[in-house]
Amino acid sequence: MTANNKFRKSRLKTFSPVKLKRARIKRGLSLAGLGERVGIAKQSIAQYERGDNLPTLENFFLLAHELGVEPSELIKDYRAPKKAGATVSP
């Protein structure tokens, strides 16, 4: 597998299904409508929105572009893990 193919098949593990669905609905697009615009089957987009499957990086960027959002807007919020015994000062 070439480096380019490896990149194209990479999966985005921090992808947020909920944020994808919200962005699609905000744009007033159906699953089929978004799928037609980006060349992805509506069934695949439905799987992304349910969290049953993750988009490839290529599809992730296509979706973000078509929805008019920054790719970072389709990423899960990051929360640093708490350290055992750590306290927070007011």
Secondary structure layout plus pairing:
Blueprint: H1 3-9, H2 17-26, H3 31-38, H4 42-50, H5 57-67
Structure in a nutshell:
The protein is mainly α and 90 residues long.
In words, what does this structure look like?
This protein has helices spanning 3-9, 17-26, 31-38, 42-50, 57-67. It has a domain at 13-72: 434 Repressor (Amino-terminal Domain) (Orthogonal Bundle), CATH 1.10.260.40. The longest helix is centred in the last third of the chain and has 11 residues, at 57-67. The mean pLDDT is 84. The N and C termini lie far apart (52 Å). It has 90 residues and is mainly alpha-helical. The protein has 5 helices and no strands. The protein is elongated.
Residues in helix, %:
40-55%
What CATH calls the topology of the domain at 13-72 is 434 Repressor (Amino-terminal Domain)
Mean pLDDT: 84
Question: Count of DSSP E strands?
Answer: 0
**What fraction of residues sit in β-strands?**
under 5%
Ranges where pLDDT stays below 50 over 5 or more residues in a row are: none
Shape annotation: elongated
The CATH superfamily label of the domain at 13-72 reads lambda repressor-like DNA-binding domains
Order of helices and strands: HHHHH
| Overall CATH class of the domain at 13-72 | Mainly Alpha
Number of helices: 5
What would you call the structural class? mainly alpha
What is the first-to-last residue Cα distance? 52 Å
